[in-house]
From TrEMBL:
<keyword id="KW-0012">Acyltransferase</keyword>
<feature type="domain" description="N-acetyltransferase">
    <location>
        <begin position="1"/>
        <end position="144"/>
    </location>
</feature>
<dbReference type="InterPro" id="IPR050832">
    <property type="entry name" value="Bact_Acetyltransf"/>
</dbReference>
<dbReference type="GO" id="GO:0016746">
    <property type="term" value="F:acyltransferase activity"/>
</dbReference>
<dbReference type="Pfam" id="PF13673">
    <property type="entry name" value="Acetyltransf_10"/>
</dbReference>
<dbReference type="InterPro" id="IPR016181">
    <property type="entry name" value="Acyl_CoA_acyltransferase"/>
</dbReference>
<keyword id="KW-0808">Transferase</keyword>
<dbReference type="InterPro" id="IPR000182">
    <property type="entry name" value="GNAT_dom"/>
</dbReference>
<protein>
    <submittedName>
        <fullName>GNAT family N-acetyltransferase</fullName>
        <ecNumber>2.3.1.-</ecNumber>
    </submittedName>
</protein>
Length: 144
């Protein structure tokens, strides 16, 4: 398995991986009209993929204001520490403290971040709706 910067050639494989995650976890809660656009927000600085045999197993993005976005690992690749490796790759590349937001519904993600030393610094209600149909409760974290 290799973690490397994402390229435009990864588009279809990234969208396929995201579809697997969305089917398993409802992340994102609603399937975007433009999944590649969702994976490439306007403020995206860089993105990385975890690849094995040409298949995208994981993805993470970093915005210009040092926020981790669009982190996911496909269901088949979970339990191998891949999300932690993706986070570590971004931290190394960025060379500065990072932040991220996670829905309170993402209990596995919250556990991962806290195991990796991320610190919760607050919570707020989001402007998007969670799986229960209410404004999501989002926890805010900073990197160790």
């Amino acid at each position: 398995m290799t973690i490397r910067p994402r390229s435009p050639k990864d588009k279809d494989a990234c969208v396929e991986a995201l579809a697997q995650v969305q089917a398993a976890d409802r992340y994102p809660v609603d399937w975007p009209n433009d999944p590649w656009g969702w994976l490439s927000p306007a403020d995206l600085r860089s993105a990385w993929v975890a690849i094995e045999a040409g298949v995208v197993l994981g993805h993470v993005g970093l915005t210009r204001d040092t926020e981790i976005v669009r982190l996911f690992v496909t269901p088949a690749a979970r339990g191998q520490g891949l999300a932690a490796q993706l986070l570590s790759s971004v931290r190394t590349a960025a060379g500065e403290p990072l932040r991220l937001d996670v829905s309170s519904e993402g209990t596995a993600a919250i556990s991962l971040y806290e195991r990796c030393g991320w610190r919760r610094v607050g919570s707020s209600r989001a402007d998007w709706i969670n799986a229960a149909g209410e404004p999501a409760l989002v926890h805010h974290y900073v990197s160790p």
